[in-house]
């Protein structure tokens, strides 16, 4: 069978004052075209369908129309889970009508979907909290899916009990393994989808997107890829906006966001993942680059004319523009810049004297001070003088200890 995995749509998201809805509509049309061209049998959307708990009517309409097109009247099951930007209740509100069209919304980590069938479409034949088993018309074997929508502290207590002292890794590892042992033998395809921050044990710390509340504050909220049961052939992840595989014994893929959503993502390609898998065989996956949407650029110039020339040659982009000059930027130059390009999100003027002063201050750093004090100064320099809180200092010390 063939599966399309995507995540982090963030419908309704804005970049400062600039709406991205038109771009989102274009890229979702592209994803529907890819699904049709690839003749996929199933679609997994691993969270952050919306950008906030109260999406606009336009964002909701775009979501429902896209999912209905992907589901093709129930011939292709579409499973969409909630992420940390989604309201679980809002995600589940369309459940009755959605199921009739082949769309399975999952808002909470322990949601259980009732057994049902779609005429000339798929059937949901087994279900448990956090698990479904599907029979698809053209497949001779079942498809099993372990699903865990995003769980914050409140949802964790509701779903896994009051003992939050148990690390999320241990809690999910136990839950997933029990489900896999009961339902996931080698006679079917076995999948997992979840929205969280996952690392390969011993691997590099992965950067979370700008504007996201970090999901990995301290060890209690950290999940390692070895929590995924060995029966699972592919794990479809959401939350991180860069395409990456954090898997250890099987692929565990962040398919990426569908657009460059912050300037920290400037230059990143965005993808969907295509998975070919059959029972008792390793999954094969590949990524398809998405072409739609405006590219984001962070550019710095020391001459107005050079900046205007670059802007003229890159009209269909969104730009964070820094101008470093000897004197303050003149009003007429600012006007010319904005008249040249309609996609300037931030215009940041800087004086060369300030840059030189900053360089001089860096040279004066006293390296004989403690590593803690140096980290505090560095943090303040990157956060407009704000001191790191206790959680950040604790995490910094854990990282130091792990390197010794």
Structure description:
The chain is α/β, with parallel strands linked by helices. Helices cover 31% and strands 24% of the residues. The chain is built from 11 helices and 21 strands. The protein has an 8-stranded mixed sheet, covered by helices on one side. Helix 1 (21-38) runs parallel beside helix 2 and helix 7 (304-313) runs parallel beside helix 8.
Structural class: alpha/beta
The tally of beta strands, per DSSP, is 21
Strand order of the largest sheet: 7-8-9-10-11-14-16-15
Give the termini separation. 46 Å
Low-confidence stretches: none
- Kindly estimate the percentage of residues that lie in beta strands according to DSSP: 15-25%
Biggest β-sheet description: 8 strands, mixed
Overall spatial form = globular
| Helical content class | 25-40%
Average pLDDT confidence is 89
Our count of helices gives: 11
**Taking Cα atoms only, what radius of gyration do you get, to the nearest Å?**
24 Å
Features:
about 400 residues, alpha/beta, eight-stranded mixed sheet, six-stranded mixed sheet, 21 strands, about 30% helix, about 25% strand, globular
Write the layout of secondary structure elements.
Elements: E1 2-6, E2 14-15, E3 18-19, H1 21-38, E4 42-46, H2 57-71, E5 78-81, H3 88-92, H4 95-100, E6 103-106, E7 116-117, E8 123-128, E9 131-135, E10 143-148, H5 153-160, H6 168-183, E11 189-195, E12 198-199, E13 223-224, E14 234-238, E15 244-245, E16 252-254, E17 271-276, E18 284-289, E19 295-301, H7 304-313, E20 317-325, H8 331-340, E21 344-351, H9 352-363, H10 371-382, H11 390-402
Parallel strand pairs: 1-4, 4-5, 5-6, 10-11, 11-14, 12-13, 14-16, 19-20, 20-21
Antiparallel strand pairs: 1-17, 2-3, 7-8, 8-9, 9-10, 15-16, 17-18
Helix pairs in contact: 1-2, 7-8
């Amino acid at each position: 069978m063939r599966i399309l995995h995507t995540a982090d749509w963030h419908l309704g998201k804005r970049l400062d004052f600039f709406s991205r809805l038109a771009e989102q509509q274009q890229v979702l049309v592209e994803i529907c075209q890819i699904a049709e061209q690839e003749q996929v049998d199933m679609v997994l959307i691993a969270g952050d369908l919306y950008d906030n708990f109260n999406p606009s009517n336009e964002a909701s309409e775009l979501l429902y129309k896209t999912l209905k097109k992907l589901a093709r009247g129930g011939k292709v099951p579409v499973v969409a889970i909630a992420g940390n930007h989604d309201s679980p209740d809002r995600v589940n509100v369309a459940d009755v009508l959605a199921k009739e069209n082949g769309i399975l919304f999952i808002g909470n980590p322990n949601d259980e979907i009732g057994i049902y069938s779609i005429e000339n479409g798929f059937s949901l034949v087994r279900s448990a909290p956090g698990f479904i088993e599907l029979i698809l018309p053209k497949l001779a074997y079942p498809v099993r899916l372990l699903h865990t929508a995003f769980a914050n502290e409140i949802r964790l207590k509701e779903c896994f009990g009051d003992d939050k002292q148990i690390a999320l890794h241990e809690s999910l590892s136990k839950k997933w393994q029990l489900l896999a042992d009961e339902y996931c033998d080698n006679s079917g395809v076995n999948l997992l989808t979840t929205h969280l921050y996952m690392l390969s044990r011993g691997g590099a710390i992965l950067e979370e997107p700008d504007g996201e509340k970090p999901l990995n504050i301290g060890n209690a909220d950290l999940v390692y890829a070895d929590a995924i049961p060995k029966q699972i052939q592919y794990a479809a992840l959401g939350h991180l906006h860069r395409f990456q595989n954090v898997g250890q014994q099987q692929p565990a893929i962040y398919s990426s966001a569908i657009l460059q959503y912050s300037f920290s993502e400037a230059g990143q390609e965005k993808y969907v993942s295509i998975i070919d898998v059959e029972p008792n065989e390793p999954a094969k996956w590949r990524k398809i680059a998405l072409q739609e949407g405006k590219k984001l650029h962070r550019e710095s110039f020391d001459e107005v004319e050079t900046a205007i020339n670059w802007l003229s040659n890159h009209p269909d982009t969104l730009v964070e523009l820094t101008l470093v000059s000897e004197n303050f930027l003149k009003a007429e130059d600012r006007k010319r810049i904005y008249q040249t390009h309609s996609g300037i999100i931030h215009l940041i003027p800087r004086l060369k004297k300030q840059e030189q002063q900053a360089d001089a201050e860096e040279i004066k750093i006293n390296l004989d001070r403690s590593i803690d004090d140096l980290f505090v100064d560095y943090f303040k320099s990157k956060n407009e003088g704000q001191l790191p809180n206790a959680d950040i200092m604790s995490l910094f010390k854990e990282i130091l200890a792990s390197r010794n």
